[in-house]
Design goal:
GO terms for molecular function: helicase activity. This is DEAD/DEAH box helicase. It contains 28 helices and 30 strands. With 820 residues, the protein is of the alpha/beta class. The protein folds into five domains: 104 residues, Roll (Ubiquitin Conjugating Enzyme); 121 residues, no CATH class; 102 residues, no CATH class; 216 residues, Tandem AAA-ATPase domain (Rossmann fold); 236 residues, P-loop containing nucleotide triphosphate hydrolases (Rossmann fold). The protein has a seven-stranded parallel sheet with strand order 20-21-19-22-23-18-24. It has a six-stranded parallel sheet with strand order 25-30-29-26-28-27, with helices on both faces. The chain has a five-stranded mixed sheet with strand order 1-2-3-4-5, covered by helices on one side. Helix 21 packs antiparallel against helix 22. The longest helix has 22 residues.
Amino acid sequence: MAFVRSAQRSYDRAALEEWFENFDFSWESKFSSRELKEGRKLYTGGAVHTLELRKNYASANLKFADGTMRYCVIDFDRGSFTLRGSSGDDFTDSVCAVAGLYEVEELMADELPPLKFVAPPQKNIEVGDSEEKSALQSGRSEEAEEGAMKLSLIFRLKRDSLIFASYWKTDSGLKPAFGDSAIRADALNKKERETLVRLASFARKAGFSYDGKNHVLSDASSFPRAASNAITHWRKYFDVPKNADLELVLKGIRNLSLNISLSSSGLGNFSADFSASLDGEKIGFDELKILDGLDGRCAVLPKRGLVRLSQKDESLISSARQAFDLFKGKPPRYMLFTLFDDSAVKLSCELEDWKKSVSASAELPENLKFLRNYQREGVSKILSVFSSGCSMLLADEMGLGKTVQSLAAISTMHDLSKNFLIVCPASVIPVWRSEIEKFFPHLKSKTLDSDADFSTESGIIWLASYTQLRRNRQKLENTEFEMAVLDEAQYIKNPDSKISATCMSIKSRKRLALTGTPIENRLTDLWTIFRWLMPGLMGARAQFERRISEDVNFAERLRRQIAPFVLRRMKSDVAKELPPKFFVDLPCPMSEVQKTEYSRLLSDARSALKSSDRRERISVLSLLTRLRQASCDPALLPNLSGSDFSNSGKISALCSALSTVFSSGKKAVVFSQFVKFLDRIKAKVSIDFPEAEIFELTGSSLDRKSPVDAFQNAKKSAVIFVSLRAGGTGITLTGADYVFIADPWWNPAVEEQAIDRVHRIGKSGDVMVYRLVSEGTVEENVRRLQLKKKAVFEEVIGSLSKNKKSFEEAVSEILDDFKD
């Protein structure tokens, strides 16, 4: 404990004698523990600026951390005192008085003449036994000068503290030196009072506090030093008998070595035997519980002394206890990868074999030979993980056939007595139905609606949109599926949404999640998916988020943790026949009208972002949308809707690029978030290129198949205008050679999904991707935000990013980074 010595003292010898003769050394018992704690903090921090000591009062001036000054006056009358203070608050006045009284004690201790008493050698005694009593009850010591009683300090080690009790050794036996039954101060001679003052000073500087009966030290790491001081330094002035407790403390802090043995407990669970060794002696799990939550600090083990586990081992014990509690003492085997993936653990032979089986390959039936080699490997991996009692995330890049791989796995497990469930966006249900009819016509599928009844039919593959599943959630209560599939599993990325809650209520023996973008915004997206796949694998949400920010080895641990249950392949790795994609950012100048409107909106957005009014801060999000609209075309702004404008810079740039596309007889896809923007572009294209075929697909298109098929089968130059969200899933546009992203979207994963409608199996030519970005606008910063988010995603299976920047922070960055 560090002390700061700064008080200026003013006193005279007569005043010091008066206080010394009548001071009550048990004064701490008159204050609350909170008052003592805060007062001690002021005293040790050097807050007492001046101390004035007079016969009938002491005045202390204190300087607080905020620079304010407080004073207290302690009126003194033969051992009793009353308080007066300047704060007007009883608690603050008491805290100041505590700091002042500590300063008075130190002053008296500093002015004491050195004592000549040296304690004789002491034999060891056991605390609490009869030997202790006989050793202490020997009356006044003949070695003490001037007939002064000897003060004996008996140390005891408790689970959370080191304490000592103080006794006077009198002719009639032991007498407490402190407390209600203590010998009165006015009955003590000068040397005995000096002894008490010196003890109070020593105890304070060693970190002990007085609890009304004993002096207590609660900081376990300070126990060895305090015990050593008591034996080597305090013994010059007090009688300090050695005992078993002191001997334990004097051994210092010893490190425990953790031992873990795991064995199978049947039904896909496991049991764990935790123990530790100390000096070759085994310590059981019940004793280890004492160390839980200490964050690497030491603790007292009864009859063993001061011990410590490494933070790593302590964290392991805590996580294991939480896991065993979560699963009512029977955690599933997949929790081995979370709890014990990097620890020295002894696995039973059965668990060793099981762990190897997770990564093994499963044999596939002959009827799946039509699959591509990498698809066969994917199905084999799914079946292997399932056979181990685990679940699987198939994270192949878009366009590699996650749908057919899933259906192939279902076909190997198909049983007329069992039902299967596939949940996907509504727009993708036709794709699943088409793939079933094409590759697995023997499988029967139905679409979930309000009339569906899971209990009356079996052997069915139920196709459900996320919306329909939520509306029919009650039907899930009494139904268990053999296998459940979440397609586009990022739909449940918000753990608090109704869709996520509905999916969590699905009962199934096997679970498969499909998504090429398991992380769209942040790592909690991945946590939510695995919460559905294998509850508990990534721990509690708060724990997961804390590890992201605190654990320097988080990326490496998470990679190892999920690796057995994730399969991720890129087109460049497995589909060698696919042509490459080429990306070009196409800068677009703005028209004068665009610049004027943009500057006005930017000023409004910055003002709203700085406002303390919550409504103003929320409005910045809508203003940001307006800025993006102004960057595209001023006609998109509500206040200018219907006005007659010349074409925006983007429309002109896009039409210029399309002239090259059409002149070579190629096809193009134009994506935009804004349907009205697509309408504006389409109107211009129909005038400039009357010979080109034009198609469209937006969220309001009831028939998605017809425009897509017509575009794919067009024999001459064609363009299809697609809203970014409507066309991101469930369609194939491999007939196009050019993709234009008319306005960059926050999330690069959404754009990638759209682009991969074109760049997928079946595509024979190169794919050129143009992103139209208005110069000097927030769109440039949106692109930077895209790259950051993409980095998080790309490193899921590599070196996971710890970037957790919120959307509002990103908005602020986008606006602040832009230079007028």
